[in-house]
Amino acid sequence: MEKRKLSFWEIWNMSFGFLGIQMGFALQNANASRILQIFGADVHELSWFWIIAPLMGLIVQPIIGHYSDKTWGRFGRRKPFFLVGAILASVGLILMPQANIFISILPALWVGAGMLMIMDASFNIAMEPFRALVGDNLRTDQRTAGFSIQTSLIGFGAVIGSALPYVLTKYFHVSNSTVPGSVPLNLTLSFIIGAAVLIGSILVTLFTTKEYTPEELANFEDPQNDAISDSEEKSKITDIFTDFAKMPTTMRQLSWVQFFSWFGLFGMWVFTTPAIAHHIYGLPLSDTSSQQYQDAGDWVGILFGVYNLVSAIIALFFLPYIAKKIGRKSTHALSLIIGGIGLISIYFMPNEDWVVLPMILIGVAWASILAMPYAILAGSIAPKKMGVYMGIFNFFVVIPQIVNALIGGPIVKYLYNGDAIYALITSGVSFLIAALLVYKVKDVDDTIVKS
């Protein structure tokens, strides 16, 4: 049997929930450091608070992947996880910027960190089944396009989320002024809007997408696949460790590419706001509450929106076609090189407007990071193991972030003397190393081989 070829709009609707997930994720990425600093965190402590995010991914995604592989009921296989994750993430989005209302119980900084943990756990609950759903529903010849469309929706959602605080202030005159210890109104309102969009976009996917039954997926499995091919269905959660040991060769090779890619991304997300505020705006390292610092934080949201918008355009209109011409590996390596150059070049930008240019280059890399590794990986995984292996693959997304979280802050404090711009340069070098490692990966069903 062969899977049905899906139309563009069927693939679009299947991935539409990612728009809301990424809008919430972008609000977090662009503003969590700023919020935590408002609540009292020092710049060198930021990466320690951000360690919550990869830890949640490390714990949650393989477990969710395992159980979503085994789940089938009236609501489907992956869909129940989408909805639960969206609801919990929305709670975190609403409460994180308002953590100071709990100050009579706990310090706002710790409540904010707790909401960050809830958001990250919940994003992971929803995110992994979306990756697996693309692998479940699409044929081999549609996977690159499928993950590219998913990446474009991620980009559009991230643009909206990243730019929303700036837009609310610039065009709707919502105040971005604040007093020490309090989050500006434009930021609080943005997080509430993000929660509403997250729920709405998930519902679009729930009501428009049909999943294959386990029996249908079993008929699609290739017995020659390098992944697990035994016919016995497993049910123990501890089988995650067995699956990890038996992971496909392609997945092992991709793990090193992912390590350096996500090590770089984590550094960018954590340190861009203090880097831009200090290196570009010229503010002292101790400034976390002035009007200029809030303006810098809003501008970082715009900059993050730029790289996400570029990623959406690249993924939707260019990535599948470039990959078909030169192969997925070469496409990914080239994209990482472009992104690495972009990160390093931030150091040389004369003012905040010029930083848009490096963000365009970073957007090219982000588009490829969100699509190419998953398109390469999906071809090496047996359908019945799609969920658990997509979850295990997330180890190689979160472990580098944990490493960066542990060492990034001390490096900035002791090696870089508190100047976060050098953390962005380190991220750029990490991208370049990842690009070199791409060429060691075996892509078992690259479309260029079959064309």
TrEMBL record:
<feature type="transmembrane region" description="Helical">
    <location>
        <begin position="299"/>
        <end position="319"/>
    </location>
</feature>
<protein>
    <submittedName>
        <fullName>MFS transporter</fullName>
    </submittedName>
</protein>
<feature type="transmembrane region" description="Helical">
    <location>
        <begin position="256"/>
        <end position="279"/>
    </location>
</feature>
<dbReference type="InterPro" id="IPR020846">
    <property type="entry name" value="MFS_dom"/>
</dbReference>
<keyword id="KW-0813">Transport</keyword>
<dbReference type="GO" id="GO:0016020">
    <property type="term" value="C:membrane"/>
</dbReference>
<dbReference type="GO" id="GO:0022857">
    <property type="term" value="F:transmembrane transporter activity"/>
</dbReference>
<feature type="domain" description="Major facilitator superfamily (MFS) profile">
    <location>
        <begin position="10"/>
        <end position="446"/>
    </location>
</feature>
<dbReference type="Pfam" id="PF07690">
    <property type="entry name" value="MFS_1"/>
</dbReference>
<feature type="transmembrane region" description="Helical">
    <location>
        <begin position="355"/>
        <end position="376"/>
    </location>
</feature>
<feature type="transmembrane region" description="Helical">
    <location>
        <begin position="188"/>
        <end position="207"/>
    </location>
</feature>
<feature type="transmembrane region" description="Helical">
    <location>
        <begin position="331"/>
        <end position="349"/>
    </location>
</feature>
<feature type="transmembrane region" description="Helical">
    <location>
        <begin position="388"/>
        <end position="408"/>
    </location>
</feature>
<feature type="transmembrane region" description="Helical">
    <location>
        <begin position="420"/>
        <end position="439"/>
    </location>
</feature>
<feature type="transmembrane region" description="Helical">
    <location>
        <begin position="80"/>
        <end position="99"/>
    </location>
</feature>
<dbReference type="InterPro" id="IPR011701">
    <property type="entry name" value="MFS"/>
</dbReference>
<keyword id="KW-1133">Transmembrane helix</keyword>
<keyword id="KW-0472">Membrane</keyword>
<feature type="transmembrane region" description="Helical">
    <location>
        <begin position="147"/>
        <end position="168"/>
    </location>
</feature>
<dbReference type="InterPro" id="IPR036259">
    <property type="entry name" value="MFS_trans_sf"/>
</dbReference>
<keyword id="KW-0812">Transmembrane</keyword>
<feature type="transmembrane region" description="Helical">
    <location>
        <begin position="105"/>
        <end position="126"/>
    </location>
</feature>
<feature type="transmembrane region" description="Helical">
    <location>
        <begin position="48"/>
        <end position="68"/>
    </location>
</feature>
